[in-house]
Amino acid sequence: MNVSIDPSWKFHLQTEFEKPYFKELAQFVKQEYQKFTCYPKGRDIFAAFDHCPFQETKVVIIGQDPYHGPNQANGLCFSVKDGIPHPPSLVNIFKEIKVDTEQPYPKSGNLERWAQQGVLLLNATLTVRAHQAGSHQKKGWEQFTDAVISKVSTEQEGIVFLLWGGFAKKKSVLIDKTKHHILTSGHPSPLSANRGLWFGNQHFSKTNVLLAQIGKKLISW
């Protein structure tokens, strides 16, 4: 796997790319993509970084795995390509935004528009085998993305971290709470949302309040 990633991130993560675990991970991913259908497309594996340069990052949203159905994953957590039906979690995200910010429900589920405003949409695992959720977990991706979160925490200030669900909340140990803001809630998946753990969290308006307080441009959700 040739690591093609935005130069601003390459500068901060170069030491990770050179570690033995990452070289093993790269070999594993290369073999998986040769033998099986995997998502996202190779060129989109690091799309979350390419659309949101390091120095422009203002918000971090943490997902778990890429979508494993055809033509869904585009390298950004919770996001799907233009024209693709919105998966249930994304539907619930958009429903909350509609109520929270009074913006209309969007036609496109492509969240590149968020990334370009400084939202890092980071899955903990960046690749997956088709139709096999979790198939690339515990191969090294989590070590890499934990390093990303730690690097953002160490090098930046005033970042808003949105941690949805038990998996994401565990990442709070990597974040310096004296320098950053952490908002937590249940996961937007129907299982969690239908139990009253997602709707009404107002994370999108709260994020913009926090950004306004430090003079940063608000996110148009």
Automatic annotation (TrEMBL):
Protein EC: 3.2.2.27
Keywords of the record: Cytoplasm, DNA damage, DNA repair, Glycosidase, Hydrolase
Record's GO cellular component terms: cytoplasm
SMART domains: UDG, UreE_C
Location of this chain's protein in the cell: Cytoplasm
Active site residues of this protein: 65 (proton acceptor)
Predominant subcellular localization, coarse grouping: cytoplasm
GO molecular function: uracil DNA N-glycosylase activity
Any GO BP annotation: base-excision repair, AP site formation via deaminated base removal
Domain Uracil-DNA glycosylase-like: 50-211
Record field: catalytic activity: Hydrolyzes single-stranded DNA or mismatched double-stranded DNA and polynucleotides, releasing free uracil
PANTHER family named in the record: URACIL-DNA GLYCOSYLASE
Protein purpose: Excises uracil residues from the DNA which can arise as a result of misincorporation of dUMP residues by DNA polymerase or due to deamination of cytosine.
Family indicated by similarity: Belongs to the uracil-DNA glycosylase (UDG) superfamily. UNG family.
Protein name from the UniProt record: Uracil-DNA glycosylase
Phylogenetic lineage: Bacteria, Pseudomonadati, Bacteroidota, Flavobacteriia, Flavobacteriales
Primary gene name: ung
